């Protein structure tokens, strides 16, 4: 006859599987904070000399005027750059990028996009990213690198002339910087929307499980 | 390892376990709420409007000073601003100021004299004719405005470092400070290493014509390694100094180094 026994360890709630390690969570929220500051102050700077026929509403800009926007932008950039660099180094060094974001295959992405659009994409195991997630997360890392490089090119077009050359010329670096911002904003909308649709993913990004 | 027996006669063991698990607190859910609450509490406890408070302003000023130091550190005095062929010149080159062209200083070239002050051996004032005698060079470079737009122009004049040498300036001093004829007294400090940069120029001509009123007649300081607002127009005096004397835009919050 089998006796049903439970150990003390089992009585205590066994800790759930860690989905997002602490370093990812900390850097994610620092990045979110820095990104918002950069976007809102960037809109302020954009308004001083708009590239296109529109300006951003004043209520959604940071700094009050161009000078204030620049101060915020060039303060938050340190947070964004240092945190971003630490994230890239840790992501590669721990193998997280390779493990979580690869491989990305065209057929996998197509399959998961189709599944998502028909609401058949499962989110049972949050530790495994689907192909749409892999593509978006890897893509936004590339955009993040591009927006920093184009920003540096505009900040130091003489000292970092080779960076300007990478983009063609100074005005082109400005456009690249703008479109990267637009891509990040689009990502942000989808990202936040999906996090709210799958709240346990938001929970995992806050407490890890 | 202690083992406890949970055998109760007449009770289905599996159902008991199932039920008891349900009564256990959901640790993960609790932590989630606690985490969220503490995040909110943090912003409440600090009690400051993060965006508009004076402490934020003070912090931003300090970071801007730090940025001055970083920029001075990475400034390579030998790195040249890219030059362009004449065909790349922006036409028309924009007039840009915090006032309309009608309000731009209208300087009489015959009366005008460049005053030289501060840590220099020869404090004599210079007439425009005297300055025109100095050797001049032409360079086609990109003017980059703090607002983000840029335009390529052709400027002709005397390298500032040659002039500083000529007047026996103490080039170990920290700044060359320019005062201008603009209304509200425009002025701007230029750090000495940028002042000694080979492309920094006392400009007397634009597109090979005497500098028009719109671009700063009689003299502009063209610094292709600086943002436009650190390229003063309508200059009336320069002072070699160790004191940071501030500037029209710098005092309002533009980063003082603002170099490229």
TrEMBL record, chain A:
InterPro entries found in the cross-reference section: Cyt_b561_bac/Ni-Hgenase, Di-haem_cyt_TM, Hydrogenase_cytochrome, Ni-dep_Hydgase_cyt-B
GO annotations of cellular component type: plasma membrane
Superkingdom of this protein's organism: Bacteria
An example Gene Ontology biological process: respiratory electron transport chain
Topology versus the membrane: Multi-pass membrane protein
Domain spans labelled Cytochrome b561 bacterial/Ni-hydrogenase: 20-206
Transmembrane regions listed in the UniProt entry: 26-46, 66-90, 135-155, 175-199
Identification of the protein by name: Thioredoxin reductase
TrEMBL record, chain B:
Residues in Oxidoreductase molybdopterin-binding domain copies: 104-249
InterPro entries: OxRdtase_Mopterin-bd_dom (IPR000572), OxRdtase_Mopterin-bd_sf (IPR036374), TAT_signal (IPR006311)
Superkingdom, natural source: Bacteria
Pfam family, one: Oxidored_molyb
SUPFAM superfamilies the record matches: Oxidoreductase molybdopterin-binding domain
Protein name per UniProt: Molybdopterin-binding protein
């Amino acid at each position: 006859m089998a006796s049903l026994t439970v150990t003390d360890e089992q009585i205590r709630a066994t800790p759930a599987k860690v989905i997002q390690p602490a370093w990812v969570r900390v850097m994610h929220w620092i990045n979110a904070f820095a990104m918002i500051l950069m976007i809102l102050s960037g809109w302020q700077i954009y308004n001083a000399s708009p590239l296109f026929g529109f300006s951003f509403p004043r209520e959604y800009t940071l700094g009050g005027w161009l000078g204030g926007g620049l101060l915020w932008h060039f303060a938050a950039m340190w947070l964004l750059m240092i945190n971003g660099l630490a994230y890239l180094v840790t992501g590669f060094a721990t193998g997280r990028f390779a493990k979580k974001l690869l491989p990305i295959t065209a057929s996998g992405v197509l399959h998961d996009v189709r599944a998502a659009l028909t609401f058949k994409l499962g989110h049972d195991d949050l530790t495994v990213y689907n192909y749409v997630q892999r593509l978006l997360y890897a893509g936004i890392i590339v955009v993040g690198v591009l927006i920093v490089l184009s920003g540096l090119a505009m900040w130091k077009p003489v000292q970092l002339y080779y960076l300007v050359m990478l983009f063609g010329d100074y005005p082109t670096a400005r456009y690249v910087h703008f479109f990267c911002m637009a891509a990040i904003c689009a990502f942000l909308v989808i990202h936040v929307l999906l996090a709210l649709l799958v709240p346990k993913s938001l929970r995992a990004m806050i407490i890890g499980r | 390892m202690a083992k406890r027996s949970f055998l109760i006669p007449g009770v289905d063991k599996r159902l008991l376990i199932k039920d008891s698990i349900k009564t256990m607190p959901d640790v993960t859910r609790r932590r989630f709420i606690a985490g969220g609450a503490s995040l909110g509490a943090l912003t409440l406890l600090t009690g400051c409007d993060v965006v508009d408070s004076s402490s934020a302003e003070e912090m931003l000023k300090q970071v801007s000073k730090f940025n001055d130091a970083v920029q001075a550190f990475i400034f390579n005095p030998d790195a040249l601003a890219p030059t362009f062929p004449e065909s790349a010149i922006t036409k028309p080159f924009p007039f840009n100021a915090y006032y309309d062209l009608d309000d731009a200083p209208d300087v009489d070239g015959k009366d005008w004299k460049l005053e030289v002050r501060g840590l220099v051996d020869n404090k004599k004032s210079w007439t425009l004719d005297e300055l025109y005698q100095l050797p001049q060079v032409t360079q086609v470079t990109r003017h980059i405005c703090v607002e983000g737009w840029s335009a390529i122009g052709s400027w002709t004049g005397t390298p500032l470092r040659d002039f500083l040498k000529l007047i026996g300036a103490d080039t170990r001093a920290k700044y060359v400070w320019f005062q201008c004829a603009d209304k509200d007294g425009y002025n701007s400090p230029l750090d000495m290493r940028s002042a000694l940069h080979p492309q920094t120029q006392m400009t007397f001509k634009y597109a090979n014509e005497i500098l028009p009123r719109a671009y700063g007649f009689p003299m502009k300081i063209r610094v292709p390694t600086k943002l436009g607002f650190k390229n003063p127009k309508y200059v009336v005096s320069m002072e070699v100094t160790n004191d940071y004397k501030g500037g029209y835009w710098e005092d309002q919050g533009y980063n003082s180094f603002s170099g490229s």
